[in-house]
Every structure is written in C-alpha cells, then in structure tokens.
Amino acid sequence: MKAPQQIPRNALVWIILALFTLVLPHLARVPTWVLAVYLLAATWRVMVYRGSWSFPRWPIKLALIASAFVGILLSYTSLIGLEPMVALLLAAFAFKLLELAERKDAYVLLFLGYFVILTEFLFSQDLLIVLLCLLNVVLVTTALVALHRPGDDRFNARPARKATAMVLQALPLMLVLFFLFPRIGPLWTVPLKSQQAKTGMSEFMSPGDVSRLSRSGEVAFRVKFEGEIPPQSQLYWRGLVMSRLRQNTWSALNYYEVPATERRPAPVLSGEPLSYSVIMEPTQQRWLYSLRYASSPDAGILGASDYRLFRPLPIEDDFLYQVRSWPEAKLDPALSAWRRRAELALPAEANPRARALAGSIAADAANPRQIVARVLALFNEQPFVYTLEPPLLPIDNPMDAFLFETRRGFCEHYASAFVIMMRAAGVPARVVAGYQGGEVNPVNRTVIVHQFDAHAWAEVWLEGEGWIRVDPTSAVAPERIERGLEQAIAEEGTFLADSPLSPLRYRSINLVNQLRLRYDALTYRWQSWVVGFNAETQFELLQRWFGGVDARKFALFILGSFALVLVPVALSLLLRRRTNALSKLDRLYLQFCARLARMGVTREPGESPAAYARRAQRSVPRLADRIDAITGDYQRLAYAGEAQDKAALARFARAVREVG
Amino acid sequence: MRSRFRNWVDRRIPPARMVTLDQRRIFIFPSRVGLFFGLCLLVMLLAAINFQNNLSYGLTFLLFTLFVVAILHTYANMSGLTIRAVHARPAFPGQQAEFALQLERSRRKEHIAIRLGWPGGVEVTANLAECDSLRQQLYLPVGQQRGWYSPGRLRMESSYPLGLLRCWSWVDLELYALVYPRPLASAELPGLAAESPDGAAVPIEGSDDFYGFRNYREGDSLRQIYWKGLARGQNLQVKQYAAYADRSVWLDWELFPGLPTEQRLSHLCYWALAFDAQGDEYGLRLPGVTIAPDCGELHRERVLRALALHGLEDPGL
User: Fold this and answer.
1) Are residue B14 and residue B132 in the same domain, yes or no?
2) What integer is the mean pLDDT of A569-577?
3) Which of A148, A533, A569 sits opposite B160 (nearest CB)?
4) Which of A26, A413, A450, A455 is catalytic?
5) DSSP-derived pairing of the beta strands A274-280 and A385-386
6) Where are the domains of chain A?
7) Which tens digit of pLDDT belongs to each residue from A354-403?
C-alpha cells in the first residue's frame, strides 16, 4: 500500500530558497510584478505549512493564471517572443508552489526550475551569470535530494553537501560531452525571438546618435591580433558604410539596391594580411566590425560591395569570427558609373550655404586632393569645438547651422558636414560608422573596444588611389584619434557621466583597473572557448586530439573518460571506511572474539560479552579461566574509564594474543 | 512465467534469515520520474540545438551526467545494508501479524529512505543515518489458513538521492508467522463433568479469594504480579488465588466426535481461550500431543501452537 509521499520540511525550505535564487539572474529582464507573484506564492505556501491558510481552490488558481496572462500582455504587448515566454515560465513556476502538496508536484516544480536556468542562457552567457546559474543547479539539486530524505524536520545543509558532491562529480563528464557531442545546425527555425533592444550602432545615423552611444561604458567587441597590434590611430573598425543621405539621416545602401554585378567586393589581394579574431557582444544587428579591406574565412560571413562584413542572421549571442585585412590594399581603383552616381547624390535643397561654400572651394582648387585639404583646414582653423554635448540642430538645413553658427559637434557632425561638402564639390564621398581605437588589455593582449569608442568618419574616392580614409575629427581634436575619447573630452568632464558605477571610471585606481582587466581577460577566454565553440572549432579540436574524426576512437575516449571519473567515485562511495573508527580496546576485543570463533564459538550479534564468555567457557573448557579474565579486563577497561591506561592496554593485548 | 521468475529470484537471492545487499541482490532501473526527467532533457537538448546555445548544451549535459552519477549514488545507498529477521508474532486468522526486522549497516555509510514492505501490506520508510542498527516492525494480515504463514519476499526499495532511479531488492527472510485456528464457540463443553477426575468443576464460592504469594515464574500473567511489593523493593512476586488450584480441565480431541478436523480445532481453541481468560488450569490432548494442565501465557501459547500445527509439519521454528 503506497501512501502519497510527503514533502519534508527541510525540502520545502530548500525549494523556496531555490525559487528565489532562480529568479535572481532574470530580475533585470522581467517586470517587477513577477517578483510580487513570487513573494505572494512563497508567503501563501509558508502559511499553508503553518496551517493558517489552505491551498488555493481552483477558481482562485484560475484567476491567478488569467491575471498572469493579462499582466504579460500588458507588459510586453504580445505573448510571442522569448521574454514573455520566460515571464510566463517564471509565473508558472511560482504558481506551482501553490499546488505543492506531494512529492510528485515537487518533481514538476524542480524540473521546471532546470528549464528556468536554461532560459537564462538564451539572454546572457556572461561568466558571472553562468557561475550564478551553476549555483542554481546545485540549489535545485539540493532541493531534490532534500525531498528524498524523509523525516528531516529541521532545516539542515546535509542535502546541499550531497548535491554539491554530485554536481562536482558530474562536471568533468559534462566537459567531455560538451566538447565531443556533435554540433548540428538548428532543426527548425526558432519562432521565439528575443525582443531585446538593438544595441550599439544603429543602421541610421543622424547628428547626435554617436554622441549618445559614447556615453556607454559597455564592451562592443574584443579583438585578438595574431601578430603585433597596430597603433591606435590605425584602428578604424568599419561597421557600416553609409552612402545615402535622406532627411538629414545617413544610411547604408540595401543589398538589393546595388546592381547584381556589383554586389560582391572585388578581390584585392596584395601583400601580407593582418589576421585577427573578433568576439562581438550581441547587437541584434547583422553587420560585423573589421579593419579595412576585410575578408573572413568563416562560413556564413559575407562581404559587401563596400568592403565590409555582414552576416545574414542577426547577432543574438556572443559571436566569434576570424578576419584577414589588407589595410594597404586599394579599394575600387576604378569607380563604376552607378557607384559614382550613388556616392555623389545629395538632396537638392538642403544646406544651401554649405554647398555654396563647397562650390567656391572647388572652384579654387586644382584637384580633389586640394579640396579635401582645404575643407579639413577649415575645421582646423575656425573655432570648431569637439564635444560630447553638442547643441541641438534645426531640422531644416542642420549642417548649415552647424558649420556657420554653433560650430560645436561630435564626430558624426564633422563626418556628415565633410561628406556633404565633398559631394557638393563633386568628389565621391561617404560616411563610415564604426569604432575607433580600443583599449589594449596588458593581461592577454586583446583590444577591448567599448561603446564610447563609437566613431564616424569619411571615405573619399580619388582617381588612381581608390577610396581613402579621411577623418575630419582629427582636424578638430587630434587627441581623440591618438589617445581616445577620455583624453579628448577631459576638460569637459562628461566621460561616462551617466554611469557612475562603471569600473572604467575608476581606471585611475590601480587595483580596480587590475581587477577589471583580469576579469576582462577571463571573459575573453571564456567567450573564445565556451561561447564561441561551434562545429568548426570542434572539428579542429578533434583533428588535434585524435588526428581525425573516427567513431571508434571517439567511443573509446568517451568510455575511457567516463570510467576515469566514475570508477574513483564508485570506489569512494562503496569502500568508504568507518568514519569513527573503533577504539584500540574494541579492536583487541574483536580480535579475541575472532580467535574464539576459530575454535567454533562465534559471537552472535547483540550477545553481551558476559553471555558470550559463558557460552565460550562451556565449549572450550580448557580456556575457561583465560576467557573469564579477558572478558573481565575488557569490561573493566571499557566501562571503568581505564582505557587511557597504556600499560593496562598493553597487558590486555598480550593476554589476547596468548589465546589460542 | 511467474514461477520461472520466482525460481530465478530464488537462485539469485536464496532465502536466509540474514541478507546483506550486494550487486547480486540489488536491481536498479530509472524510475518513472527518471523517465520524465529524460524527456525534459530531450526538450532541453532541442532548445540547445535550435538556439545554437553552447551553455544550454552544457546544462543539458550536466544534468545528464548528474543522472549517470546518480546511478552510483542510488546503488551505494542500498549496498552494504544488512537485513535480519528478528521474529514474527502469532496471530489469529484475518488479523495483522507483527513482523520484526532489523536493519544494520556494515560500514559507517548512510542508508537513507529505505522503503520496506510486503505486497498488500503497509510500507514503512527507514533511515539508517545516525545509528548502526534499527529495529523495524511491519504488520501484515495473515490470511485464513491456520499453520505457518509466509509473507513471501520482502521488497526493499529506495530512490535516494535524486528519485530518478529506483533501486530495489526482493529478499526472503524465512520469516513465518504462526496462525492459530479460528476460535469457534460451541454451546458447552460436552462431557466436561465426566472428564474431570476430582469433580471440581463446580465453581467454588469466592473463587478470586486471595491465597498467598509465590515467586514470579516466566509466563505468569502480568495482571497477577504484585506490583506494590516490587515498588517497595521486594522480589517480583505473583498473587495466587485459591480457586486456581482446584480446577483442571482436559480439552480432548475426543470431546467432539464426528466433527471435521478444522472445526474440532476451532472449538478447542475457543475453550482454551475461555479457560485462559478465567484463569483456570487446562490441559490438551490431541492425537500424538499431550500437554498437562497448567495456566499462564506461556501455557496458552503452547496449547494454541499445538492446535495450530496439528497435522502439519513443524519446520522447527
């Protein structure tokens, strides 16, 4: 007859504990009311335990579930998508607590808990988050162990010890499977997309966009060069090439707007390439960052006609890719008619003063190179100011206002004004958006590029040279290019003004900076080994380990490594020695019993020494006196507190040895 | 099929009064919860593949290997456990007999949440965590048949620590409970007067008159113990009543001629209990067995045992 299994009190405490640590990493993502649901559910369940309240009846449960659905609809406007699904899962997780009466309910709850951990990884794969999730796995497992220890009525940590030991034993096996399990592509397209906001550069650029981005201390991507790191002034990370100006906003040409014959970049292969790998933080966008003239050996990364890299799928997770760049290569030595038209197009009416100025400069200049030099000289000689807080520009003719009135701007103002003037002067030009510079981490020699390194500059096309880079900002604030944003706006004091807690602000404190750089190096290693692990890296790894993918070696390795871990675990579990060993006296007495047993008198379990002695005396009469003496000594030593007496113990040992 | 399975189990785990669980005697298989867990892992693996998320792969593999490690832990929780038959108390047909078992551990290892039970009986759960041995009582209805009742194989089961695997064993502890004949009233005891040698069947006036003390002998009724004396520090003594000595009755097989065996035994059983309740002395005469008149619990048990085992083989327990 099987009674329903109850939930021990200890398990209930661990379950509620796990419930709250599980929601912890999700906190920033879910609406606040989900936390209120958690508190309500936990309080209710504790009240049920104390007998004050009863389990909710079905109308109340139904009302709770319905209100959760309504709440999610109100918070997210839709039920489809990753975030609403996670919020729903978390709410269901809390409500299940209100049904937690028997052990089988707890199973559902705890397995749901493992799912909640999994969903966290779909949003963040940060090292600290992963450690927190590992702790959550241990906690859920602890609750599972506590569930199987009947009669544990007090909160105790014994199940936690067991669960920790088990998870630690499972970890090495997990690593084997992680590196060897074949990675295959998605089985079907995932209908649940994250609603996470796009971060970093946007695909449209109007004055003020880049300066907004430059307030953030987040990491945009990390780069590891195979050889020397090029100087700061050469690190122009091209992301978007913007050739179209419409309503004061720059944007890139669409793939399908480019004629079919010009969609692929012309191969420009001369000289030694610069090899490096990039790990990008998720942007939910499609373009990648690279130095100029880039190509990638990775599958699934394409090159656009304006010599930048992109990926057909948005970057939703940390993304690792390899790049080779030829910084000296000429881009488009000959410009097609279509391309020339596209790179000279200007809205007809906008910014008349700027265009007039450009026209007069062009009339004086002998060649396009002189036009470029004169416009840059204009920025340099007139009182232009480089600032993170430029004044707002009017919607009509903003560049006229910038060039002739405010004269305060960030890189996108200078780039935009420069390109407009170039185009007005008849020189093909375009805006390039991306990042400039980066911080070299001395710990592992990676270049960390932050959001505040966001930058915009220009490219102009010159006969015989192709596209060359011109950075108007360097004419106004050369220190921005040489030493980065922080130095360039040091007087203004606006660097990371909105993030008072960013460790980047405390770079001057040596210890903080050291910790930050070490953690960043760890993050890089983590991202390149775990997060960036894919079918290709797996194939390379297998090549290196086994010299090829061979099913037999594969199976042998898995079996071997499992045995290597499981055999010691099994031995430690099954051959565990007595933890509180017998005293020397007891050992001697058992020796004595063993000697008598050889003569045919085995001591029965639970038989007292006196009773055993009587029985032994009857069957081995010749030793009757000795048996009596030894038993007497034993009892005296054991119960009269004389066991500490070394001499007496030695006498006893001698007496035992003489039996036989 | 069933008997073939039973033969196989008998060969594998031969009946014994004491069984230590080891790899021959322990079976292990995923429990229903474990299968459900496997299903969950499959869904998680699908999520990992479809989202191309390495850490989801990692979590799925961690939980899978946790399951693998749990096999060892679940097995280790059972192995090394010794179970010993202690006793089985006699019972009347249809009643619950008490079976006492002792659980012992060989090494100082914990054995948690061991469920013990016979099919059809109430299950008990035992923890062997702080102590080295544990006495456990189980109750089981014994059926209608008098004689030795065998409860069959005892199921020992545990799914500690994760509940994903079920580890079990079937042990036969050679534990038999004695089932007495069902007491069956008859209107009167025929030929009672003729049988009594001294004609003392007529009750003496004031039959519970106090007569004196004598030293306690094993089997004396607890009701007759002179507790006050014991409290004063005297020896354990029993109060004696005058009426006892004068009455002695023979319960004879031949008192119920013509009746079938079981009915005769049932009537004899009834009368034995009746006399015992009154505190009278009574003896038993069965073909091949004679028990001289006496009284007390020990005597009653001897008589009932003789009645229960009449015509049956005594396996010597």
Assistant:
1) yes
2) 75
3) A148
4) A455
5) unpaired
6) 9-180, 204-347+427-510, 535-574, 584-658
7) 888 988 988 888 888 899 999 899 888 888 888 888 888 888 888 888 88
Residue A346 binned pLDDT confidence (cut-offs 50, 70, 90): confident
With a cut of 90, say whether residue A179 has pLDDT above it. Answer: no
Q: How far is B158 from chain A (nearest CA, A)?
A: 9
Find residues 187-246 of chain A whose CB sits inside 8 Å of chain B.
187-188, 190
Report residue B136 as tokens. 């456990």
Helical packing angle, A32-50 and A58-76, nearest 10°: 160
Q: Annotate B67-116 with DSSP letters as a single string.
A: HHHHHHHHHHHHTTEEEEEEEE--B-TTSEEEEEEEEEESSS--EEEEEE
Q: Are residues B55 and B107 in the same domain?
A: yes
- Angstroms from B214 CA to nearest CA on chain A: 28
Give the per-residue pLDDT at B280. Answer: 82
Of A167, A181, A578, the CB nearest to B57: A181
Instruction: Pull the structure tokens for residue A542.
Output: 């297998």
Q: What is the dihedral of CA A163, A164, A169, A173, to 10 degrees?
A: 90
| B135 and B6 co-located in one domain | yes
Residue A642, pLDDT score = 57
User: A82-97 and A58-76 helices cross at what angle (nearest 10)?
Assistant: 160
In A19-48, the residues whose Cβ lies within 8 Å of chain B are none
For β-strands B281-286 and B177-179, DSSP reports them as: unpaired
Which of the 8 DSSP states describes residue B119? Answer: T
User: Which are the contacts of A224, defined by CB distance < 8 A and separation ≥ 6?
Assistant: A276, A277, A444, A445, A446, A447, A524, A528
How many domains does the structure of chain B reveal? Answer: 3
Q: Cα–Cα distance between B308 and B142 in angstroms, integer? A: 13
Nearest chain B CA: its distance from A128 CA (Å)? 13
One-character DSSP codes across A6-56? PPPHHHHHHHHHHHHHHHGGGTTTS-HHHHHHHHHHHHHHHHHHHTSS-PP
| Local structure of B269: helix, strand or coil | helix
DSSP for residue A5: P
Which of A499, A477, A454 has its CA nearest to residue A209? A454
Alpha-carbon dihedral sign for residues B3, B6, B11, B14:
negative
The partner residue sitting opposite B53, judged by closest CB among A122, A147, A580, is A122
- What ipTM does this complex have? 0.78
B302 shares a domain with B236: no
Residues B314, B258, single domain; the answer is yes
Residue from B44, B51, B81 to probe the interface with A (highest A Cβ count within 10 Å): B51
> Residue B152 in contact with residue B119, Cβ under 8 Å?
yes
DSSP 3-state of A171? helix
CA distance A65 to B262: 66
Q: How far apart are CA B164 and CA A107, in angstroms?
A: 10
Residue of A89, A140, A158, A166 to mutate for B, most B C-beta atoms under 10 A: A166
User: Beta-carbon neighbour count of residue A175 at 10 Å?
Assistant: 16
Query: CB distance A566–B47 less than 8 Å?
Result: no
Question: Domain containing B241: what range?
Answer: 209-246
Q: Are residues B169 and B256 in the same domain?
A: no
Domain boundary among B193, B225, B246: B246
Instruction: Inform me whether the pLDDT recorded for A486 exceeds 60.
Output: yes
A267's CB contacts (< 8 A; 6+ apart) are none
Residue type, position A490, single letter: A
Q: Are residues B55 and B123 in the same domain?
A: yes
Shared domain check, B217 and B96: no
Q: What is the pLDDT, as a whole number, of residue A191?
A: 60
Helices A103-123 and A127-147: angle between axes, nearest 10 degrees: 170
Q: Quote the CA–CA distance of A408 and A385 in Å, as a whole number.
A: 5
In three-state secondary structure terms, A572 is helix
